[in-house]
Amino acid sequence: MSTIKITDVSRTPRAGMKGPGATAWLATLGLTVPDVPNTWLPLEGGLIARLGLTEFLIEGPESAKLAAPLTLGTYPVLRQDTALLLGGECLNDLLLEICSVDFQALDPATHPVVLTSMAGVAVTAIPYDDSGLPGIRLWCDNTYGAWLFDTLAEVAGELAQPNYSRQQGGIL
User: Fold this and answer.
1) CA 73 to CA 87: how far, in whole Å?
2) Of 75, 98, 139, 152, which residue is the least packed, with the fewest Cβ within 10 Å?
3) pLDDT of 45-79, one tens digit each?
4) Which residues on adjacent β-strands are paired with residue 65?
5) Last residue of some domain: 25, 46, 77?
6) pTM of the model
7) Residues 66 and 99 placed together within one structural domain of the fold
8) Which helix (H) or strand (E) segment is 155 a member of?
9) Do 48 and 40 touch, CB atoms closer than 8 A?
10) pLDDT of residue 131
11) What are phi and psi of 160, to 5 degrees?
């Protein structure tokens, strides 16, 4: 039977930063930032995502560095997102049911960051390789987190049923 795993990783520390001085300030903290918007780089135990020209999301232990005093042109961004990991051999089928972005067409090696909607909820998503299987790390507003988790689990459960066939258009 095909599986999809959904893991809530909302307790992972994260912080945000934006402003015209953000890139330079992050560099003074020893953080390497992605060169272009909508990309990310791995950090020790986490990642740094460039969400725009001057906005960043840092997740993992390195996010504690953002507690340092700010410099002119830098502003903190409160990050209280729900964070989820999705993975498994049926992940693409799930994503096709809830989102208009074809994540299968993206190359995880280029470290893309996708801002889109899943099941009507605005999300920031990062596709990655999960031990040879597709994976997606996503963040959404925490007020929608429980609902999105439940919706993803419901759709995943429908896809895992033995009588489901995408080619046949759903449940037979």
Assistant:
1) 38
2) 75
3) 999 999 999 999 999 999 999 888 888 889 999 99
4) none
5) 77
6) 0.88
7) no
8) helix 142-160
9) yes
10) 83
11) -80, -10
